[in-house]
Amino acid sequence: MIEKAIEYVRNIFAGDSSGHDFYHTMRVYRLALQIAQEEGADAQAVALAALLHDVDDRKLSSETWEKKDNAVSFLRSNGVSAEQIAHITQIISDVSFSAGRVCTTLEGKCVQDADRLDAIGAIGVARAFAYGGSRGRVMHDPEGKDDSTTIAHFYQKLLLLKERMNTQTGKRLAEQRDAYTRAFLSEFLAEWDTN
Ligand code: ADP
Ligand code: NI
Description:
The chain is mainly α. Helix content is about 65%, strand content about 0%. The protein contains ten helices and no strands. The protein has helices at about 1-15, 20-40, 45-50, 60-65, 70-75, 80-95, 105-115, 120-135, 150-155, 170-195. α3 packs across α7 and α6 (about 80-95) packs across α7 (about 105-115). It is globular, with a radius of gyration of 17 Å.
């Protein structure tokens, strides 16, 4: 079933250029499994929730977001029990930062940490600019009046993520990525000011 889920998300996200491409899902899947192993979480639920965590994303698929229709129909057609489907869709609902929820399950904590790790570090920086570009956002407003710029997103979200890691493993993995994100930001602002 994991193989099928990988093929399923490959088809959905193959051409994405907004920071949610197929490889984002695969990184979250691998990181989430690594965290799950260290934290003793249910690997099957973590694997499926990680693979399906963006298929009903509010921004990408607003019409299926509420009921997680894509994830549910994939799981149903692969014979997953109703109870396990409820567990997996709960994890997926917990993952999104903007929902502001605290994860209710250990499995949700693992997937959320993995998703957040992919939003920081070199790849996180690249994804933020890809996402900003996809929405027509400007990179930076030196006057600080525009709060929808990609640099503003660093202060609104990226710099906060290390402190919000749920698991010890997530915290450990966030250290280097957070340091890189901060180094990038200071270099960016220093270069901006010299030009
Ligand atoms: P996910 O769906 O993976 O939980 P999001 O959809 O919130 O995460 O964000 C996907 C990527 O786009 C992340 O790398 C995030 O930092 C970036 N992103 C989200 N909102 C913005 C924004 N307003 N400006 C720049 N980047 C953003
Ligand atoms: Ni994601």
